[in-house]
Amino acid sequence: MSKKILVIDDEPQFVQVLKVRLEANGYGVVTAGDGMAGLETWKKEKPDLIILDIMMPELDGYSFVQDSKTNPDLKPCPIIVLTAKPGFDEIFKIEGVKDYIVKPFNDKELLEKIRKHLGEGNNA
Asked: Which residues contact 28 (CB under 8 A, 6 or more apart)?
């Protein structure tokens, strides 16, 4: 059974491109267009990893992570934050965030981070 990744981002074209790339690498992918929908999708789909944009309407990435800590219905999983702004080292201070990547990014870098946090090494 393939690992399931939840992608939460408010840019539909970006989400579609990322979904295709992840599926081509053997991952199951579910998506949400904002933080509120992301929390519902997390609860329903129980992903193995979340890729989360920071700057979104409704519920931004920071609030998403904070809200997730108080919801007992959510299966714990690593969160990789996407940001268009470099220098977001403070993201690591948010409990639950395991890594971050700056947009635009290369596929190899993202896949390495995904494999690392899913415990897959370089074999995926």
From this structure: 2, 3, 4, 5
pLDDT (tens digit, 9 = 90+) per residue, 12-65? 999 999 999 999 999 999 999 999 999 999 999 999 999 999 888 888 888 888
5 forms beta bridges with 29, 49
Rounded distance between C-alpha atoms, residue 32 and residue 124, angstroms: 24
Average pLDDT in the chain: 87
Residue 99 has pLDDT above 50, yes or no: yes
Q: How many residues does the chain have?
A: 124
Domain that holds residue 63: 4-117
Residue 123 lies inside a defined structural domain of this protein: no
We report the CATH number of the domain holding residue 63 as 3.40.50.2300
Cβ neighbours of 50 (radius 10 Å): 29
